[in-house]
Fold each of these.
Amino acid sequence: RILILDFGSQYSQLIARRVREAGVYSEMYAYDMSDDDIRAFAPSGIILSGGPESTTVEGSPRAPDVVFNLGVPVLGICYGMQTMAMQLGGDVQSSDFQEFGRADVIHEFPDRLFAGIEDEPKKLRVWMSHGDKVVKLPEGFQISASTPSCPIAAMSDETRNFYGVQFHPEVTHTLQGEALISRFVHGICGCGNLWTPEHIIDLRVEQLREQIAEEKVLLGLSGGVDSSVVAALLHKAIGDQLTCVFVDNGLLRLHEGDQVMQMFAENMGIRVIRADAEQRFLTALAGEADPEKKRKIIGREFIEVFTEEARKLEGVKFLAQGTIYPDVIESAATKHGKAHVIKSHHNVGGLPDDLAFDLVEPLRDLFKDEVRKLGTTLGLPHSMIYRHPFPGPGLGVRILGEVKKEYADILRRADDIFMQELRASGWYDKTAQAFAVFQPVKSVGVVGDGRRYAWVIALRAVETVDFMTARFAHLPYDLVETISNRIMNEIKEVSRVVYDVSSKPPATIEWE
Ligand code: XMP
C-alpha cells in the first residue's frame, strides 16, 4: 500500500485516485503525520504531494524525517520534490517566472521511473504548475528530466529509490501520468495489482462479518448510489441480519418508491421496510413557502419517521451508512487542506441519544468511482449506478414555494418525460444532473380552439464535475423541442415549458 502525504495541493486527492486506479491501495494523510503512524501504516512507498506554500519560507511544511529513513521508495511531486530536495541537502529558489500549464520535458537520463515512457523520443507532454524550482541537487541525485525554464524538472537517486518530479503526473494533461504512477507503484515499490472490485468486495465482506458477527444492522436506504451499494454489500456479507428502512416522503420521482422495493426487496431478497410517509410530509409542509424552512421540515420529519421505524426493531446494534472517502477528507480538511482530525461524517445525523448505534461504514475509504465499480460488480444495474444525484429533500426543493401533492404529481410526470428523452437521445450520460422544476405561476396557452391557463415547468440540465461550478447543458434545440411538446401535450395542467440557461455561479443548480 502507498501512503500519500498531503501538503495541500488541489490535486492531492487525484494522486490517491490514480494510485488506486493503478490497482494499488492508497491513503492520504496530512504531511505532519506522526512517525509512529507512518511506521504503523507500513507503506510500500510514499508520495509527497504538491502544495501552495514555498519551501524557501521559514517554517514552511516539511516531510517527517522518517519518510527518508524507512528504506521505502519516495516520490515527491512539485512541492513534494522541493521539500525532498531541501531536506536531503539540495536547494530551492523562488523565481518570478512562474510556469503554469502544458510543457514538454526532455528526459536527460532514463532512470527507472522514466525508462521507456515517452510521448515522442525522450519527450513527455506534462502539466506544470509552480513558481519555485530546485536549483541544486541533493547528494546522490541526478537530473532525470528538464525543460528550458526548469533545468531540474525531475531528479532521482536510484540507489535510495528517491524520485522527484516538478510536474503533476496525477492530472490527465500529463499524457503519460498514469504510466508514470503505475511505474512508481508497481515497478519501483513492487506493489501487486490487488485493488480490484472483486478483491475489495472479498476484503470488505470478511471485515464486515468480523465486525458485525451475529448482530443486527439497520440501514437507511434512499435508492441513491452509496446507500444502494452498502445494502448490496451488507446483504452479501451478513444476509438476513440486515434490515433496511426506506422512507417514502412523497417527494420522490415517478415510480421511484416501487422501483426501490422491486430491486432490493423482490429481486435481491433484502428485508426492506417501506415507510409510506407521504401524507405526513405533505401535512408538515403545508403552508410553508420558505426554502430553508422547507428543508428543515423535511430533514426533521425524515429523522422522526426513521426513528419510529428503528424503534420497532428489536436488538439492532449497528447503523450502516454510505459515507465515502471524499466526505471523510472534506470534513477533515483544515486551512492547509490537511487531512488532520478525521471526524465522522454523519449522513443520518440527529438521531435521539437513547437510540445509540455503533456505525458501520464500509465505503468510508472509497472514492465515488470505486463505489460505482463495486456496485456494478455486485450486480446493481447500470441505470442505478450512473444515476444523476438527487437531493435529500427531493421534489421539495423543485416545487417552488409551498409544496402540494397536485404540484408534485405534475412535476413527477414532466420530469419523467424529460428523463425518458434524455436517455433516448444519449444526453443523460452527457449531463451531470438534469431535472424539471415546478413553477407555481400560471400562464396562458392555446389548445385547439380553447384557451388553456395552466402551470409552467422549467427544465434544468447542467454539466459539471464537482457540482461547485456548473455550466447549463447546451442541449440540442430539437431535443428541447421534443421534450417541451411532449410535456405540454401529455400533461394538460402545463401550458408552458422553459429552459434554464443559468450557470453556477451565480445561480445554484437547484432552484431553491
Ligand atoms: P446547488 O443547488 O447548491 O446544488 O448548486 C449542488 C448539488 O447539491 C445537491 N443539493 C442537495 N443535496 N440535500 C442534498 O442531499 C440538499 O438539501 C441539497 N441541496 C442541493 C444538488 O442536487 C446538486 O447536486
Amino acid sequence: QNARIKIDLDRTIGEVDEKIYGNFVEHLGRNVYGGIYDPGNPLSDEKGFRKDVLEAVKGLNVSLTRYPGGNFVSNYQWLDGVGPREDRPTRLELAWNRLESNEFGTNEFMEYAKLMGTQPYFAVNLGTGTIEEARRWVEYTNVASGPKYAELRKEHGYTEPHNIIYWSLGNEMDGPWQMGHLSAEDYSKKAREAGKLMKLTDPSIKLVAAGSSNFYPGADPMQWNKVVIDELKDVVDYLALHMYVGNVDDDYYSFVASPLVLEQRTRLVKGLIDEAMHRAERADRDPIYIAWDEYNIWYRWRTGDAMTGERALEERYNLEDALVIASFLNAFIRNSDVVKIANMAQLVNVIAPIFAEEDGMFLQTIYHPMALFANHVFGTALDVYVDSEKYDTGDFALGMGEQRADLKDVPYLDVSATYHGDEVIINVVNRHKDKAITTDIIAQEGAFTGEFEVYEVNGPDIKAENDFGKTNVETMKKSLKGKGDKITYSFPAHSFTLIKA
Ligand code: AHR
C-alpha cells in the first residue's frame, strides 16, 4: 500500500514568517575574517567583501542575520568596532581564544547586510556589558541625530540611522560557559532594565530574551524558560532557543529523527508562554513568539583545538546532515503559529552552508535544503495528514554530552506544506536509507492540475560530502504532471523533495 499525504486547505496552522530563513554571522573562526570579509584578496571587492561568497550568500535569500555573536558578544565592546580603523583596538577574544582586530564592526556589517538584502538582528552584551552600553548602541544605530552617539555615527560617515529593529538581550545566559553567566532571576532583572533603556531610546525595536541553550546534565532548561518568560513577559517579543544535534554514535535513523526533539521543545515552550500569558491576563498584547536563533548540526569540530583560534568549528557536512536541516525547517513550518524567527548557525566556514578558502569556495550539503525553503516555502502553513511506515529510535545521544532521546513512531516521511497564492508547496524528507517510498498526495478539496516543479536534494549515499571541485550532493530540478484529486510520487531513498503543485 502506498504512503499517503493529505492536503486540506482548511486545516491551517499559521502564517510562515519569512524571518525563519535567517542566518548568523559571529566573530568566530573564519566567519567574518577570511569568510565574508577578506581585504586584499583578488576575489574581494574594494570594501574587502568576498564577491564569490556574497553570490552564494544571496542564493540563501537570508531574511534576518544575527550579529555579532554568539558567545563572542558576551565580552564585546561595540565601541571598539566603530570609527577610524587605525584607532580601533586589538583585543584578546576570550570566547574562541583569538585576537579580534575590530577591523569589522557595526557599520561594516550593516553595509554587508545591505548587499545581502537581509534585515539585521543585533545581540547586545549582557555578560560583561552594562545596560547603558546596550542602550548607547541603540542610540548609535537608530537615532537620527541629536544625542552624542547618534552624532558619533554621523561623524563616522553614516548620516542615516541603520534602524535595526531586532535586538536580543544577551546570548545563552543560562550556560556556565557564557562570560558573565547569570542565574535566571539575575538575568531577567538585567534584561528587563536593558530592554527598558533600549526601548526608551527607540520604542520601535523588538526584543528577544535569551531562553534555554543548556541541555547538559544538571541543567534545568525548562525552569530557566519559565522564569524568563514569567519575568519578561511584558517586555520582550520573542524568546530565543538554541539547539545543536550530532550523529555522535553513528546511528543514522536516530540522527535524522532528532529535529522531532526540537519540535517537542517548541511545544513545551509554547505551553509555558500560553500559561504565563493566561495567568497575567495579557490576552491584549501580542503573544511572545519563539526565535530558534541558533540551530544546526555541530559535533565533529566540538572539542579541543577545533573550538579555538583561526579555524574553529569548520564542520564539513554530508547528505544525512542536509536531511536533518530539511527536517528542522519542516519543524519550523509545522509550528508556524509560534516559531517566527530562526537562524541557522552560521553563515560561512563556521558550522556553515558555505565553505571558503583564499582561492575559492564551495556549497556544503546543508546549503541546498536551506536555499530551497528560503526561496520557495512561504504562505500559510497547513496541518498535513501523513500516513507512512514508522520506526522507533531507541535511546540515543542527541549531541555532544547533551540530553538523550528515545522517539517512538517516527514516520519515514517527514512532511510540511504551505499554501501560497494558488500554489501548494509540499516538503518531504524520505528518511529511509534504502527504499523509495511511493506516496499518494491527496487533495481533500479541489484538484491538482498541470505540470509541477519538483526539486530534489540527494546524493549517492548518506555520507556523501561536497568539497572544492566535487559536488556529490546538490539540488536537481525535476517535473511532475498531475490531474485530479490525487498525484502519486515516489520519494527516493535519503532525499529531500520540494513540490510546487
Ligand atoms: O554557534 C556557535 C556557538 O554556539 C555560539 O557562539 C553560542 O551561542 C553557541 O554555544
